[in-house]
Amino acid sequence: MKFGKVDRPELIDFSMPMDHKNTETLIKNLNDTDAFTVHVGCAKWNKQDLKNFYPRGTKDELSYYSRQFNCIELNATFYRIFPTETYQKWKEKTPENFTFFPKIVQNVSHLRRLNEHAYPVLQNYLDVTSNLEQKLGTLFLQMHSNFSPKDWNRVVHFVENWPKEFRLAIEFRHTDWFNDEKVAQELYQLLEENGIANILVDTAGRRDLMHMRLTNDEAFIRFVGANHKSDYSRLDDWITRLNEWKSLGLKKINFFVHQNMELESPLLSAYFIRKLNKKWGCDLKIPNTLLDPPSLF
């Protein structure tokens, strides 16, 4: 993930912002009877990107990956709509407790930019993606960096007409969605009223995306390591913040680990899972890695 990449990460202030003033209130008002779930995974499973992860001779990468992690942030579905048979194979290859979090195809978000021509494409996408059945988690929509509030009406129509049988999270990247307070408040209210997650992106060059505003019962976090030793202290900060949210009543946590240059995302993930297990007494599997203990830098 090149988005938010900087040449000198040691110069970035990675201190975590305080929560948005409405986040605590939202969490405290959630249904406290829901089961607690936590998912931690990478964005891809291919061997070319996940260096030092697959044992020599591994032939079925998804089968191996899905027995090390309990989820995948499925970026492949951003680039094209796969046939039904592909989704069925993915479902069959993975364990019962594995969850896919697919990115919505770029024809909807980037090429048609939520206009009226995006909806037939979206319906086709949802038809095939639904073949993941019980292994389908939250879908997420990532808007282009130049998609700005001038297209507010498109966002309203999309959100209000989203089929409620699918969980949805949205990532907005244009700075005006967050730097204009009036726009931000209207956006947060729209997402909250429609039960849609407001994605948090922790990346070096775009600290404004750490808005710390949750809008439903889910923390959907995309963490982008800077290939620097600070990646570990940033993960420590996330453990602290997620623990605060959990104490308030948050029940759904989905955390996906990227790097600006995908080298050792599984190592960062393994470090994070160890910390979670120790903090919460979880029994999440710690992924096997070929470099252990983690020693990226």
Helix content: 25-40%
Regions with little confidence, pLDDT below 50 for 5+ residues: none
Overall geometric form: globular
Strand content: 5-15%
Main sheet record = 4 strands, parallel
- Could you give the count of β-strands? 9
Q: What structural class should be given to the helix and strand makeup?
A: alpha/beta
CATH homology superfamily name: Protein of unknown function UPF0759
Alpha-carbon distance between the two ends: 19 Å
CATH-assigned fold name: TIM Barrel
**Biggest sheet, spatial arrangement of strands:** 1-9-8-7
CATH class: Alpha Beta
Element order: H for helix, E for strand: HEHEHEHHEHEHHEEEHEH
Radius of gyration based on Cα positions: 18 Å
Architecture, CATH level 2?
Alpha-Beta Barrel
Number of helices: 10
Number of domains: 1
Q: Calculate the mean pLDDT score and round it.
A: 94
